[in-house]
Amino acid sequence: xxxxxxxxxxxxxxxxxxxxxxxxxxxxxxxxxxxxxxxxxxxxxxxxxxxxxxxxxxxxxxxxxxxxxxxxxxxxxxxxxxxxxxxxxxxxxxxxxxxxxxxxxxxxxxxxxxxxxxxxxxxxxxxxxxxxxxxxxxxxxxxxxxxxxxxxxxxxxxxxxxxxxxxxxxxxxxxxxxxxxxxxxxxxxxxxxxxxxxxxxxxxxxxxxxxxxxxxxxxxxxxxxxxxxxxxxxxxxxxxxxxxxxxxxxxxxxxxxxxxxxxxxxxxxxxxxxxxxxxxxxxxxxx
Length: 287
Known about the structure:
This protein is mainly alpha-helical. It has two domains: 1-56, no CATH class; 58-280, Orthogonal Bundle (MetI-like fold), CATH 1.10.3720.10. The chain contains 15 helices and no strands.
């Protein structure tokens, strides 16, 4: 009887999890199917989509006909790679300092960082700061002002604090300095946490468009999201003004832009999946 109850629980639990997985996955599948559908047939459809309706690549053709899309990809990859590298380096250095219990000003600087999570100067002071630093119309305007996220810093501090203090003491006895301890002991042992923070930063840089719209002037420096936004805006304006060639794909082009801007960043997940659960659980359980 006990075994039968256990089997029934497993079956019910499996069915519930499958239902949750389907509900979570279906919106993404809907976007994929809609982007590959014929726009006229898609507008006439009022039911759920389980496959493309009248297969068509017209929306993707409109997106990739714009030569700026390739320049946008290059710029976005630059911001993701360089920006994430700067983020990880700055966050690890700050977290290492603030996780050392012997640092006398540790509490003061930690409170100063936390203060920025709840209070900010706003858009105008941020713009004036970037302008005074000479970063207007510079690629580094999207990298340096947001070099450290306080939320990610707190996670990193917690991860560093979980590393046994005895390892640092042994390294100092062998003559290692702070930089050696950080790069050769602390960071390798905190790899799960670093990989999770890396994902957070990379996704943030990939999806960023607002700061680029404010700080950048040259189209050659614009990220992918700006070009996709322009394509989507032109398609909507074309549909409103009655341009049939644009209106034909007006309903599907928004789904195509979602796929174009989402799929590349999703490719990062499989490489860090094994670290993700362990990394996000850092600090959740106290001994």
